[in-house]
Design brief:
By secondary structure, the chain is of the alpha/beta class. Helix content is 34%, strand content 25%. Strands 5-4-13-14-15-12-16 form a seven-stranded mixed β-sheet, sandwiched between helices. It has a six-stranded mixed β-sheet with strand order 7-2-1-11-18-17, sandwiched between helices. A three-stranded antiparallel β-sheet has the order 8-9-10. Bound molecules: flavin-adenine dinucleotide. The site of flavin-adenine dinucleotide has 34 residues, from helix 1, strand 2, strand 3 and helix 10.
């Protein structure tokens, strides 16, 4: 346990048990804090699309002792094949060429594999409260009074929102999401579907201007596919957020005349029981805390899937926040240090969106032609350059424990 002053935070409530939440809980427990995690789902969420752990974030999971587990779960995708409107091949690439990942080092794992590995590291050490969420937060000089949806009331020294892009903690603390949300011009649907094409460890991506359809085989020919439909929407369709039928209708209309296998994919979407629909956007906030409440991961600085860096920012941000709380006398200094030491890394990675979005999902015929020429150029290149933003933060040593 670290030697913190009597005025330092001792009890911490974390909302959200996905990536940032359990990572923060692991480190805070190690530094001697009493941690409670509240998660609205009834268990850690399994399944889900593949996500990346790269650069600085690799060091976080290594220090947590879960790197070997994640290496064993690594999805070793053989190739990305880009297709034109009729399904003809545009380019076949190594995945690292597209993502700027470092082969043999960076990892891509199923989201459920990562959440399970993180949960295992802390499940016996901190208090988990599933099937509940925060209803109200009331800050005062001595702590934060929390009323849970279940009706229970408790007081914590500090509360941290790790409850994702559409964070309720952020809303309760600082108001509606719209003021912090930077809409990036796309809507998307992800779901799993039967592997009727017999694909194995590969990704196929079909594009026309403003529309993309991808099939991702993270396993073998007998395993289901991750389907991904991403399309340009100049105006954010906010009214669709809680209406799955309207979401399906919009997707079906958007892809009505599409070639290749897109008709089959849209049909599968109608049958999917795990459809996830959202808009591509970032969270950009002038400050990541207010009083005794701070935010971490997507709730504070979601970079969007277009960067592929959301998981890595969540892991690194949680590590940095825990370390700041362990090394500073009170939460005000700790939150200031967390932000000072982490913001540049976040900014650099959020900035990748302008490159990535334009590159993979062009909205005009000219931009698509430019992208295809660029992809053909990558095929000819002997090696790929890692993305500097992924490793832009050199992780400080953990705070001392005794
Ligand atoms: C389609 C898609 C593809 C992606 N691809 C990639 C990729 O390739 N690479 C990558 O790095 N990232 C990717 N991401 C982003 C990545 O999934 C997120 O950045 C990452 O999960 C953020 O972690 P987090 O812990 O901050 O939040 P989340 O993972 O969003 O977790 C928030 C948690 O809080 C819980 N919760 C929500 N509200 C409450 C509440 N009120 N009370 C209690 N609990 C609550 C939720 O149930 C959830 O468990 C992708 C995201 C999407 C949607």
């Amino acid at each position: 346990m670290t030697s913190r002053s009597d005025t330092a935070a001792h009890t911490v409530l974390i909302t959200g048990a996905s990536l940032a939440g359990p990572t923060l809980a692991y480190w805070l427990h190690r530094y001697g804090f009493a941690v409670t995690l509240v998660e609205k789902a009834h268990a850690p969420r399994g399944g889900g699309y593949p996500i990346d752990v790269r650069g600085t974030a690799i060091e976080v999971v290594r220090r947590m002792g879960i790197l070997p587990t994640l290496q064993a779960a690594h999805i070793d995708t053989g190739r990305f094949t880009f297709l034109d409107a009729d399904g003809a091949e545009v380019a076949v690439l190594r995945p690292s060429a597209v993502a700027g990942s470092v082969e043999g080092q960076d990892l891509e794992v199923g989201r459920g594999n990562l959440t399970a590995a993180l949960y295992e590291t802390v499940r016996d050490d901190v208090e988990f409260v599933f099937d509940d969420s925060v209803d109200t937060l009331d800050q005062h000089e001595r702590g934060v009074d929390v009323t849970f949806r279940s009706g229970r009331q408790r007081t914590f020294d500090v509360v941290v929102g790790a409850d994702g892009m559409h964070s309720g903690t952020r809303r309760a603390l600082l108001g509606p999401e719209e003021q912090f949300h930077r809409y990036l011009g796309y809507s998307f649907a992800v779901f799993t579907m039967p592997n009727t094409l017999g694909l194995s460890r590969e990704l196929l991506m079909w594009n026309t201007p403003g529309r993309a359809a991808a099939l991702y085989a993270t396993g073998g020919a007998d395993d289901d596919l991750h389907a991904f439909l991403n399309f340009h929407q100049p105006e954010q369709p906010l009214h669709l957020r809680r209406d799955p039928d309207a979401q399906r209708d919009l997707v079906a209309r958007t892809y009505a005349d599409a070639g290749w296998e897109v008709g089959t994919i849209v049909k599968a979407m109608h049958q999917a029981d795990d459809l996830f629909f959202d808009t591509a956007g970032q969270i950009r906030m002038p400050r990541w805390s207010s009083g005794r409440v701070a935010l971490v991961g997507d709730s504070a600085y979601a970079p969007s899937f277009l960067t592929g860096q959301g998981s890595s920012l969540a892991l690194v941000g949680a590590y940095m926040l825990a370390r700041s709380l362990a090394t500073h006398g009170d939460h005000v200094d700790a939150f200031a240090a967390y932000e000072r030491d982490t913001r540049e890394f976040v900014t650099l990675n959020q900035a990748l969106v302008d490159k990535g979005g334009a590159r993979l999902f062009p909205t005009t015929a000219e931009a698509l032609e430019r992208r295809n020429a660029m992809l053909r150029g990558l095929v000819a290149m002997p090696a790929t350059t890692p993305q500097p933003a992924h490793s832009a933060l050199v992780l400080p040593e953990p705070a001392p424990t005794s």
